[in-house]
Design a protein that fits this description.
The chain starts with 8 loop residues before the first helix and ends in a 21-residue tail after the last strand. Helices cover 37% and strands 28% of the residues. The protein is elongated and about 125 Å long. The protein has a 3-stranded antiparallel beta sheet with strand order 1-2-5, with no helix packed on it. The chain is α+β, with helices and mostly antiparallel strands. It has a domain of 116 residues: Immunoglobulin-like (Sandwich).
């Protein structure tokens, strides 16, 4: 006669819980492996970009270089003597004109200061100097990253967008690097401002404009 074996209810519950947990673990592992396998090189680069932080330390416009015409230097020297004599003759006349101009200027000031309109401000082509602090918190750095530079006027109205490639090759986890560069041929007027940012996400259709997506990735 067979003897009936009774399994404790607690044991049955533990076995069922163990099976459920095992299934959950298997499904999670499959999902992780599938996600890693489906990630393209461009997506890996995009993910690595998020491991950088960029901070603008300072920026400043460079003074324009003076234009020197060597062909005119010799002629200027020859004309200097004649101009000196002519200048002496004109000096007396200039004194009288200056006195008259002073009177006219006083009358204009009494009527009120003339406002300078936006059309009166002539932009100059300048070089803009930038000094940045770049930090990397990943495991494998990119050869470089592209930052977006926004150019705005004194009223924060956007005037233009620029992009610049920063060399970040060899950066290790928690590395910080100071990078400076000059942006050339910028139409600048006093009061203009600049900001620098690393876009957290670059749409796939715009990745061709960012150099890190066209060179060897991580």
């Amino acid at each position: 006669m067979l003897k009936e074996i009774t399994v404790p209810k607690e044991t049955i519950v533990r076995q069922r819980i163990s099976r459920v947990l095992l299934c959950v673990i298997v499904v999670a592992c499959v999902a992780v492996l599938t996600g890693c396998a489906a990630k393209s090189p461009e997506d890996q680069i995009a993910e690595t970009r998020t491991q950088y932080t960029v901070r603008l330390n300072t920026w400043a416009p460079r003074d324009p270089e003076p234009m020197v015409d060597e062909g005119m230097m010799e002629g200027d020297a020859m004309a200097a003597g004649a101009e000196a004599a002519e200048s002496a003759a004109e000096a007396a006349e200039s004194v009288a004109e200056a006195a008259e101009s002073a009177v006219e200027a006083g009358e204009e000031m009494a009527e009120g200061e003339e406002e300078v309109t936006e059309a009166d401000v002539v932009p100059q082509t300048r070089k803009i100097f930038f000094d940045l602090i770049v930090r990397f918190d990943g495991t494998k750095s990119l050869p470089g990253i592209t930052v977006d530079i926004t150019h705005a006027d004194a009223f924060e109205k956007e005037k233009g967008q620029h992009r610049y490639w920063l060399d970040t090759a060899g950066m290790l986890k928690s590395d910080t690097r100071q990078i400076d560069f000059e942006l050339e041929d910028v139409e600048f007027v006093d009061g203009d401002v600049f900001s620098v940012a690393l876009r957290p996400q670059v749409p796939p259709e715009e990745r061709g404009e960012y150099r890190e997506f066209t060179v060897t990735g991580p």
